[in-house]
UniProtKB/TrEMBL annotation:
Binding locations of substrate: 187-190
Family of this protein: Belongs to the protein N5-glutamine methyltransferase family. PrmC subfamily.
Enzyme Commission number(s) from the entry: 2.1.1.297
CDD domains: AdoMet_MTases (cd02440)
Source organism phylogeny: Bacteria, Pseudomonadati, Elusimicrobiota, Elusimicrobia, Elusimicrobiales
Organism: Candidatus Avelusimicrobium gallicola
Methyltransferase small domain segment(s): 113-191
UniProt-annotated binding residues for S-adenosyl-L-methionine: 144, 187
Keyword Transferase: yes
GO molecular function terms noted in the UniProt entry: nucleic acid binding; peptide chain release factor N(5)-glutamine methyltransferase activity
Protein's recorded name: Release factor glutamine methyltransferase
Listed Pfam families: MTS (PF05175), PrmC_N (PF17827)
Catalytic activity field: L-glutaminyl-[peptide chain release factor] + S-adenosyl-L-methionine = N(5)-methyl-L-glutaminyl-[peptide chain release factor] + S-adenosyl-L-homocysteine + H(+)
């Protein structure tokens, strides 16, 4: 009977041959999912025999990963801010950069404060759920144009028992939004259309609606920012995640119309975030 270590090594080799992103980590996570254990357990128990009744399932899931399907779609979950977020092909897979956006924003508010937060382009609801989890007295509005994405977001809110404090709204940006907020946070579609063809196989499995930022990448961000002032409470914060090269042009544009804006780098040392308040 092959050992866990032997099966893992074979899986890594197959993913390397397929050109998969991070073959070692993906093989470990996939094996942990099939065995119902943690990734740490897999690494610490490589000498244990691999259960024969798990071979067929592991082979099927590994073939999906070889074909470029995101790991989150295969296992149905993605860790985010200490929470397991349900992921389907209808939503963008939460990423570490977005976790950092949430943590940077959370540091600006008192944990017991009675705030109103708006998560625009909520997708899986990872931002809204993480904020509701961190701020027990906050009310959160999660907005998306996609009804399918909102269903996933609602499932995540129920999963983490914050559904009573998150309102979900289908809206094309500000179309159906009412009220004002202490924080408007968004990870909008920001990839220029011409760049979509050059994305990795894994990212190409993500919903185009969550990726495509139009010709210049600002098709969603621009109208989001143009109207944001009317939806922020005095002293409120606008926080955005963008792609490389976009934050400073956006920040300068905001400063030209009376905002105080700053750009921050992400964990990979890439200028990624814009934080802005009205003067």
């Amino acid at each position: 009977m092959p050992t866990i270590s032997h099966v893992l090594q074979g899986a890594v080799q197959r993913l390397e041959a397929a050109g998969s992103d991070e073959p070692q980590a993906n093989a470990q996570w996939l094996l942990a999912h099939v065995l119902g254990v943690s990734r740490t357990w897999v690494l610490a128990n490589g000498g244990e025999p691999f259960p024969a009744d798990k071979e067929a399932l592991f082979s099927r899931l590994l073939a999906r990963k070889e074909a470029g399907e995101p790991l989150s779609h295969i296992v149905g979950m993605q860790p985010f801010c200490g929470l397991d977020i349900r992921v389907t092909p209808d939503v963008l897979t939460p990423r570490p950069e977005t976790e950092e956006l949430v943590e940077r924003c959370a540091a600006q508010f008192e944990r017991q404060g009675r705030y109103t937060f708006l998560d625009m382009c909520t997708g899986s609801g990872c931002i809204a759920v993480a904020l509701a989890n961190k701020f027990p007295n906050a009310a959160v509005l999660a907005v998306d144009i996609s009804a399918a994405a909102l269903r996933v977001a609602q499932e995540n809110a129920r999963l983490h028992r914050v559904d009573t404090r998150i309102q979900f709204l289908q809206s094309d940006l500000w179309e159906n939004v009412m009220g004002t907020f202490d924080l408007i946070i968004s990870n909008p579609p920001y990839i220029p259309t011409a760049q979509l063809a050059g994305l990795t196989r894994e990212v190409k499995h993500e919903p185009r609606l969550a990726l495509d930022g139009g010709e210049d990448g600002y098709a969603v961000t621009r109208p989001l920012c143009e109207a944001a002032d009317g939806y922020l409470n005095p002293g409120g914060l606008l926080a955005l995640e963008l792609c490389q090269g976009q934050p400073w042009p956006l920040a300068r544009g905001l400063m030209e119309i009376g905002w105080k804006a700053e750009v921050k780098k992400d964990i990979f040392n890439i200028e990624r975030f814009v934080f802005a308040r009205r003067k």
